[in-house]
Amino acid sequence: MMISVENLTKRYGAVTALDGLTFAIEPGVVGLVGANGAGKSTMIKILLGLLPATTGGARVLDLDVATDGPTIRQRVGYMPEHDCLPADMSATEFVLHMARMSGLPLTAARERTADTLRHVGLYEERYRSMGGYSTGMKQRVKLAQALVHDPGMLLLDEPTNGLDPAGRDQMLALLRRIGTEFGIPMLVTSHLLGELEQVCDHIVVVDGGRLLRSTSTADVTSASRILAIEVNERVDDLGRALHAAGLSVHPAGRQIEVELVDDSTYDIVLDTVVQLGVGLHRLERRRHRMAEIFRADPTLDPNGQNLQDSQGAPNGVAQSAAAELQQRWASTAGPGAPGTPHHDQRPDEGRQR
Ligand SMILES: Nc1ncnc2c1ncn2[C@@H]1O[C@H](COP(=O)(O)OP(=O)(O)OP(=O)(O)O)[C@@H](O)[C@H]1O
């Protein structure tokens, strides 16, 4: 097991930060997701053996956090959430210092520092003072110092915090590469479920210190029976034509979704696209999204907006918009007819990433 947690409770005076958590996770890229204050940082500090549990316990790489803290911290690389970098040092000086602190001889530490900074994507800038770095560059240095001593596992606290959408995507891709190419298992925290499900093999969801769900991502995000179609023009015409051809059609922003009945559904879609003479940009099976399990069961999701990322509109909005457009395509009046509103954006579409 990479991490196992048993009946773990942590109280700070009257505040219960973790409340009787039990779960076990195999090595891989694992996400710990929860709104701000859910208890993620507390969990990481307990796993590092830096903070004692109030009751219950945990094991990391089969070591007991209560008694084996120093060994855990030798074997695990830790990226803290907050900015902790000395402004007047360069990335090279800082990461080299951390490599030396972890016990590497000077030559090896120099080599590892250069390699690690290159892996995280810091090049010429690595000789400049970190005070002038962007948030993205600082996050990369924090990641590099966690990696430099070749740890057996990583604990990363909010590595995408403060990054713009492009920076988030780059950081997530980097983490995925570290997990798969270098084979380093990791626990990464975020308050955004949508971004963790892109890169994690397993997700643990906490809320108010309690466990909501611990699940393999593949179990939840398996392929759905929905085909997404994107064309270069005349989306409404295509929607009407597919409906007329007998398919169950739903608008989805600039895309159209149809229910996949069997292989003939693909033929109908392709024939219809050819008949209309429009350009086909994309035809693919949708995957389920993890937020759907929370939408399906509101009792699991007391802080839905936080867990659902930026797509957390209530499901009813999607349903009524879909019904309206379904009607529009079924009728001959076409778009623009009175009483046919155009808010055809489903909550899981138009993601601003
Ligand atoms: N040292 C402390 N003393 C008292 N309360 C604390 C302390 N550290 C955390 N808490 C409280 O414990 C709860 C969990 O905090 P924690 O920092 O673990 O959450 P988090 O999920 O990491 O949130 P964030 O992403 O905002 O850091 C919060 O209610 C927080 O206010």
Automatic annotation (TrEMBL):
Composition skew (Basic and acidic residues), residue ranges: 341-353
Polar residues biased stretches: 302-313
Please verify whether the record's keywords include Nucleotide-binding.
yes
**Residue segments, region Disordered:** 295-353
Under what name is this protein listed? ABC transporter ATP-binding protein
Family to which the UniProt record says this protein belongs: Belongs to the ABC transporter superfamily.
Q: Which Pfam family, any one, appears in the UniProt record? A: ABC_tran
Key words, A-Z: ATP-binding, Nucleotide-binding, Transport
This chain's source organism reads Kineosporia mesophila
Q: Where is the ABC transporter domain?
A: 3-233
The protein's superkingdom reads Bacteria
Q: Which PANTHER family match?
A: ABC TRANSPORTER, ATP-BINDING PROTEIN
Q: Could you tell me which SUPFAM superfamilies the record lists for this protein?
A: P-loop containing nucleoside triphosphate hydrolases
The keyword Membrane is annotated on this UniProt entry: no
Molecular function (GO) terms for this protein are: ATP binding
Q: Which InterPro entries match?
A: AAA+_ATPase (IPR003593), ABC_transporter-like_ATP-bd (IPR003439), P-loop_NTPase (IPR027417)
